Amino acid sequence: MGETGCIHLKNFKAAKGVDHYETISSIFTWPTSPKYRKAKALCCFCHICQYRGPLLLTCLHCIHFACFGGKHIHEHSKSKKHFLAVNVSFGNIFCFQCGDYVYDKELFHINQKNKATAYKSLGLPYINTYKDPYSTEKTLLRLNPVKKPATNYGAVGLRGLLNLGDTCFINSIVQALTHTPLLRDYFLSKNHVCHFEDDRTKCLVCEIVNLFQEFYSGLDSPLILHRFLHLIWTHARHLAGYEQQDAHEFFIATLNVLHQQCKDTSQAPNGDIPKNSNHCTCIIDQIFTGDLQSDVVCQACNGVSTTVDPFWDISLDLSGGVAVEKETKDQKPLTLADCLRQFTRQEHLGSKIKCNNCNSYQESTKQLSMQKLPVVACFHLKRFEHSKIVKKKITTSVSFPEFLDMTPFLSEHRQAVANGLDLYPPHLSSEDNRYSLFAVVNHIGSLDLGHYTAFIRHKKDQWFKCNDDHITQVKKSDVLASEGYLLFYHKRILEYE
Amino acid sequence: MSQSSPRNTAYVDLMQTGDYDRFRELLKKRLVECGWCDQIQVICREIAREKGPGITAQQLMDEVAVKGRALVPNSVKRELLQKVKEHLLKEAGYYDNELKKKTETAADESMS
Prior knowledge:
The structure holds 2 protein chains of 2 kinds.
Chain A: H1 7-16, H2 19-29, H3 34-43, E1 56-59, E2 65-67, H4 72-80, E3 84-87, E4 93-95, E5 100-102, H5 105-122, H6 135-143, H7 168-178, H8 181-188, H9 204-215, H10 226-235, H11 247-267, H12 283-288, E6 290-298, E7 304-311, E8 314-316, H13 321-330, E9 334-335, H14 336-343, E10 347-348, E11 353-355, E12 360-362, E13 364-372, E14 376-381, E15 384-386, E16 391-393, E17 398-399, E18 403-405, H15 411-418, E19 434-445, E20 450-458, E21 462-467, E22 470-474, H16 476-481, E23 486-491
Parallel strand pairs in A: 8-14, 9-17
Antiparallel strand pairs in A: 1-2, 1-3, 3-4, 4-5, 6-7, 6-13, 10-13, 11-12, 14-23, 15-16, 18-19, 19-20, 19-23, 20-21, 21-22
Helix pairs in contact in A: 2-3, 2-5, 7-11
Chain B: H1 6-17, H2 19-33, H3 36-51, H4 57-71, H5 74-91, H6 96-111
């Protein structure tokens, strides 16, 4: 079938133009205003059998509504000799002389335009899935006629990274980021709109997009991150220089630059999308941001003052009392869950602070809990102690699981337990807060002379060790037995907003 | 279905406020997510290949409709039904009384 439909539709268009179709499409198929929605609600049903459904058609000649299933539109067409009708639900044209739906490019575009307007008026996001490919895309398609299938095995997605002189901290973070499933999906689907139009080389997000393209291009030669490094140096000056830096600090700085550069663009199009009150909608915040709730309870009046702060990572203490206590008492190694319990336990604040409830200075306790969990939870084990007296690396072993349930650390759960409703194990309707490990960054060596490597999960449950440009497959048990400095967990079930 | 039936009134209300289209969009989203749309596409392709180029939309529809309905996951049906029901009850003021009661008791507590 051509782009102009059948001869009957062609003749109709030549005689009457497209106004009839425009009217039907903009009022009844995709009502573009509240007035038209009312008209649709009151008029669109079969005037013979009262049917309202997806197979309702309207005559293109005289706008008579009748159903297709009961053949009432057929009767109309026969008696009036009106041979063209429009499907009210979708806007497709049916030709009774051809006995089938016919396609016409011009009318199709009118219908798509009305659909976009209708969606906008309802505040729904409209994605045009029918757009013609751009000329650049057409060229690419012609150049690559063979589809590359993604298999569960194979090395696509694994690239070594050359060390540019103590840049292993960058390499290991880049490995963790490029293997974050949701980030990968976002960046490979070209969702980023750059706002450095004059000079794209300034945009770190564009560079990350390039990096993802390189990682998943199917090549396996090591990459050199010189442009990425340069951009980090220009945007986060405190990391400039050829010295070994802290991988955690670098990770946060990178997220920060990406967040700054994504921020403006993510809010520009589709102004209708409801925004979360104080959350940015950029991809970094969508994936990495959680909310930490801090409850300060006054010991005199039990008044609670609650503050909520966003976080990108959770830094866990290893030198605290619990670590020492546990090791001496149980002879069992410290676990990640122990650290999290320590992190969210009730603690007495050293000095008296002012209570807003009873307006006096009182002893208080403070407790942290997770009000909103991020999609990717990054745990930072504080292995480097930089106090006035000592600077040392803490090598306490912490065992971390492959799967982690964050439910016990949720504010909501804490509240329920406090009220005597133990929701654990969670009942059916509550959310699934389980996470699975997908990357571990390790630090080997001492404070002054060290090296960073990363373990990453690849494809279906395969693990690889990325040591600059050396990539080797490892067993899952090796990953879980490693020391661990940064632990990256991905939420297993994503909730829709 | 007569023009004054409850079902029709609900339809007219939903259509006028645009909620009908919102639910329709949600349904579409769920069907894409659960792979239903892909399944249907595969089935349509198979039938089209079998019947050859002369096949009409109606013939395709007759074959796919029954299978397609059966393939919609129950969870999707339940979610939509639940949401539409909830919405209609809310619009009809079903929850207003409970809310009123709650605010009244809250007011009583703060008074005492």
